[in-house]
Amino acid sequence: xxxxxxxxxxxxxxxxxxxxxxxxxxxxxxxxxxxxxxxxxxxxxxxxxxxxxxxxxxxxxxxxxxxxxxxxxxxxxxxxxxxxxxxxxxxxxxxxxxxxxxxxxxxxxxxxxxxxxxxxxxxxxxxxxxxxxxxxxxxxxxxxxxxxxxxxxxxxxxxxxxxxxxxxxxxxxxxxxxxxxxxxxxxxxxxxxxxxxxxxxxxxxxxxxxxxxxxxxxxxxxxxxxxxxxxxxxxxxxxxxxxxxxxxxxxxxxxxxxxxxxxxxxxxxxxxxxxxxxxxxxxxxxxxxxxxxxxxxxxxxxxxxxxxxxxxxxxxxxxxxxxxxxxxxxxxxxxxxxxxxxxxxxxxxxxxxxxxxxxxxxxxxxxxxxxxxxxxxxx
Length: 379
Ligand code: PLP
Hints:
- By secondary structure, this protein is α/β, with parallel strands linked by helices.
- Helix content is 42%, strand content 16%.
- The strands form four sheets. Strands 2-10-9-8-5-3-4 form a seven-stranded mixed beta sheet, with helices on both faces.
- The mean pLDDT is 97.
């Protein structure tokens, strides 16, 4: 078997596999983005977005651009001009947050933990208690190391401080439980290509009512106030990525049909199955299990096998795609994404292939154990 993108078992950490209905939705002739038909699409998307974010409060904006465009829109339009801004780092995307925030804020306090470890919660609390914090910027799900950061824990401290609570939810929205109102999140960014299972290329920013009032001009193309104003007329300030909006509508309809609770439950069970299977193989998760993410599982490469012998072989011999590591972890870890419409057959094929590769290298001590671990979690 050789790699075939049309039939691959596709479990990278996003983009994720896309349902044929969503793919077909994009196959339309060009539409007039200033015409009634397209405005109707935008209207429908607007009516469906509360499903995605689990709240009827606040406002959402759809931007043409990948997740980072949403982050840039959020930070450039909301970071306060005065006061300290806290960034939290425990992986690659936390580091990127810090770099991005430094473009738009003058006084940044970076609170870091080693990649893959829990955020420095006590340091955050102490820093907030010192006062004069304008915003806290955090990655909900640190995709690079498969860690779910604990927003519920920090939410009361952030709320009490009065700081804006700004969240990168690119790999958590529609994958991890979200309580935006309860946590007092002021802005969160979702990416189309992760839990939503739409194609890459759209960012969706959800804003609290307080954040809407605090918007100020930042980046021009990504000016959230301008986008909100256009959206009132089901319009966009600039030419939108029309086919991606069509895909987004269908992906949201699919999510509504499945139900967010059902999608989260499946994502969680797949994650549990994946973690159990990894442990059954005697492999080591990157983070402690207690903080491991439900949307992406990060694993140290099997001892003695390099990326070429392992991940590339999965791709070449079994048509299975998982993802490698980033930064200093390149070549050292692999990551299995199990969000969006990922399902049991994906995991079964993947672990069958992993077992076989380990076996051919004489490193499989308990044949069938990983597969059994997956089967045991199936509904
Ligand atoms: N933040 C997180 C947590 C991510 O997982 C990603 C992408 O994987 C990004 C930011 C960057 O998003 P994009 O590549 O869509 O710009």
